[in-house]
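The instructor's notes for this session suggest beginning with a concrete chain rather than abstract definitions. Hand out the sequence below and ask the class to guess, before any prediction is shown, which regions might be ordered.
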Amino acid sequence: MQSRHIEEGEDKLYPFASEFKSAGTKCIEIAQKGDRKSRTATLDITFAPVTLNYVGCAERNNPDRGLNWYLLTSDPVTSKEEVLDIIRYYEYRW
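After discussion, reveal the predicted structure:
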């Protein structure tokens, strides 16, 4: 996925987002698909209002093959509860 330019800083989104503090964690179930085994992924959550609203999820304890989601949304993300809703919507795609 391409790192996008944002209005909030000189950096693109990914370098800008790498400085965010964790807002907590969330465990999700990853289904078996193809060569991928099923597992429980623990995601570190970050968020911030940028040009579009950003929600980040990174599986920290699986650096080689872990999930790393950069989600952009027009929905509000001003609290962890709102962020968990966005993540849940994306989870449905899995």
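Then share the key points. Residues 40 and 90 are 16 Å apart (CA to CA). The first strand starts at residue 24 and ends at 30.
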